[in-house]
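hiii so my PI (J.) wants the whole complex modelled not just the main chain, which honestly fair. so below is everything: two entries, each one labled with what it is. i double checked the lines twice but i was tired so who knows lol
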Amino acid sequence: MEILVILVPLALMLGGAGLVAFLWSLKSGQYDDLDGAAWRAIADDEPPQEAPVKR
Amino acid sequence: MQVTRDFSHYVRDAGEGVRHIDLAVEGVHCAGCMAKIERGLSAIPDVTLARVNLTDRRVALEWKAGTLDPGRFIDRLEELGYKAYPFETESAEVAEVAESRFLLRCLGVAAFATMNVMMLSIPVWSGNVSDMLPEQRDFFHWLSALIALPAAAYAGQPFFRSAWRALAAKTTNMDVPISIGVILALGMSVVETIHHAEHAYFDAAIMLLTFLLVGRFLDQNMRRRTRAVAGNLAALKAETAAKFIGPDEISQVPVAAINPGDIVLLRPGERCAVDGTVIEGRSEIDQSLITGETLYVTAEHGTPVYAGSMNISGTLRVRVSAASEATLLAEITRLLDNALAARSRYMRLADRASRLYAPVVHATALITILGWVIAGASWHDAIVTGVAVLIITCPCALGLAIPTVQTVASGAMFKAGVLLNAGDAIERRAEADHVIFDKTGTLTLPDLEVMNAADIPADIFELAGRLALSSHHPVAAAVALAAGAKSPIVGAVEEAGQGVRATVDGVELRLGRPSFCGAETLVGGATLDPEASIVAFSKGTAKFILSVRQGLRPDARAVIAALKMRDIGIEILSGDREPAVRAAAHALGIPEWRAGVTPADKIARIEELKQRGAKVLMVGDGMNDAPSLAAAHVSMSPISAAHLSRATADLVFLGRPLAPVVAAIDAARKALHLMRQNLWLAIGYNVLAVPVAISGVVTPLIAAAAMSGSSILVMLNSLRARSASREIV
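here's the output for the full assembly
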């Protein structure tokens, strides 16, 4: 059962890392525009400067 | 005279020589729009950031301070096919956003803690029935405490604060039993852990907070979203005024940047955005938004004008006064304050439930403790059992019962074009059994329509529409809109207060007063609508008359019929003249109506109905309706309503149809039904669980399973509010 000394802190650290990542994403405004973000993921890359913007 | 647009009021300094402005944009709804706008705006030199927020329909723009005029962004968006307006975040919205983020942070912390405590609890549960050593169990309990205590202290803040506020005000709310339950559960668990006991309730306490925070966050998020839409609509209405910044120089500035004593120009067809007194010019003004009266009032030197009045014929210069000088407004404000004070006495369903719930639960826990002591148990065991009762009864499902339904129902209403202003509006809405309609702008549409377009040859009507484009008069604008005219007639001349004339192919065209077109005889001969404005059109010697008025909302009749089918009493209270009100009431089949009613009379009528036990729903838009909107049990305004009324109403509906009035009643009734059902589910759960808890056989495993089971059941039941009935009739 000595393995607990490693496993428990490891589990807590992983959980803590998840929490920190969540708080960071919240702070950096990742949840401000959920609808837009869904579309941005599938949007095309920026076209070259001169290319006409097509809809 | 030169007119400049001044956006400096909206521009913020974002530091390091960068300027920032937020624009509300109409018509953005897909990824294509988003990319088009962002690319179009980024192409302007010096722009450093252009980012669309699709959820809130806004664009954030940043650029290097210098020569770039923010007006250019609006022009660019116009070229791309979007209407944009500078936007100022209201302080109320900022507060909602901050609260929403705080709740999400609390939820994140609570969810993290729940997952980790559960990870530690499950080994203990399984270990207790197999071969776990007491030392290992204590170690796991201490670890749970280490996670749960700080997490609960942080994530419990929304509940602890609200409970403290309620207790300080010597009342109770749902958060009081929640806070007591959580604190006692945690406290007892710490004591038990110190005494190497078998059971600790860290998981139950923190899981309770997580579930409740989900409900809280959903509720808050819906409010935030509604607030954002309302903020955009306010920006789209673009309340600006033409302010004199020199003897001959005008700047179009937002109303917020205008001070008492300033002089503003009011052109024909413009809506006045300020209160003030006319100092120069002569015109007719339409005060229907303020008084409900559709007859125009003559304005000249010394006439007071109020925000919301429409200038009809001439150009006016208005000196802005402080609002307190306006006697009409002062009167309305006084009535409004009284009415609002009366309404705040309404007690929400959740608070009523918790007022019954808290004493019952706490008494049960106390009786359990005393009962076990009398039965011969030790004080320690008795208290542990008592706290277990509190944990098992902690209103997890009860706390979710109402917010989840409210969230789902307000989402359904949102889709039907109804925005909620007040949190408890759904409950009050569901109880309404008598509807009072205002006429002007509520039963009728706020904009003018040509009523007899079908009687006029199409080519003549089109010509009249093109000629009308050259006039600023609102009636002319209505004619142009009805005729779908696009290209104005070249060389058309407007004669102030008379009409427009032009010559095409040697034939003279005139549009305006009947006398201006020589059509008095036509007007005298016809039987006409008392409410309509008559304009004449002449082409050479051929003469026509057009009758222009505010039309009834397209589905008004169907809505009235639908309300009657639901056994809801209907009446009209209008500030307008008798013939006009009678005509509308007759057309809609409403037997009960009163005309020429003052704001005080409207309140008196509502009070009278209240005395008889009716729950009144007031639907109105005028500033004169604001006090009665506040006095009624629940109230509703169209989005075109006066500022004050829109802010006072519990619900605001969008668009031209009146159908949202019925849709909202149906959705609210269904929601209230589900709320009650949820409360019964929660009570039913308690009836099953409490005897188990009192008997002292509850383990943390049972508590956790019961709590999540009942919460999920209530949430699933709430989702049924989503299918709020669409069909009206």
